[in-house]
Amino acid sequence: MNNAQFAQLNNMINNMNNVNICDANCQKRKKVDRLRTQYKNAENKLQNAPAEIKATRQAYYLEDPAKGSEYYNQYMEKKYKDEAKSEVTNWNNTLINPLYNQINSKIIYYKSQEYYKNNVKDLYNYHSTTLQELNNDVEKTNAKKYTNDRLAYYYDYNSSIVNGFNNNMFYIYWILTGISILLFLYKKQFRNASYYPFIVLILVTPFIMHKFYELVFSKIKHASVNNLFFIYFIIIISLFFIFNFLSNLPFVNNLQPE
Fold it and tell me: What is the pTM of this model?
């Protein structure tokens, strides 16, 4: 017996041993376990797919020099607008159009009833008016939704920049205020009452401006953003002159420390 025949005989013996070790039921269980594992893995991939797609897409667009953050923001804006349009279309298909068809069917039915013409006419007018109001409401709703989508994107895109600027200005303002108060105490200028209006003003101005901002924004809202900017410009100019006047007050006032 040569080596090839010996190896073939050895393989046959091993296969027979494996059959004896794992019978048909054993092989069936192994197949079921394998299929269960494949099913669970596929299910996990499906559940994690949306989040993984979102994260990898953002990383890819931001990292690619040919795209960048501006391209990614434009892409997300278009995506959200498409989703909004899809929701409005679905709303029209599931609610408005069936209601429209139902009312339209009733209108056709009432028009065909010539015998009850006088009584049906009022009912026809009523449904026609209702239909027109529904169409107007749909147009107003669509316009309002698109406007809100644009505002949401604008505020979301710019809020991070504005908040960062406000935080930096907040810290700078209070650091300078603290230095002014320390110099005020160090030079013992608290004996001169003409300094007090300026000190009080720099301490209360941030709180007054914050309350004033909330009040004005709640009244004006986005309908008059240009007016809001104009008001802030006037306030800043006014504060500049007030600060300038109060800071020079000790030098023109004849009140001297005792």
Answer: 0.32
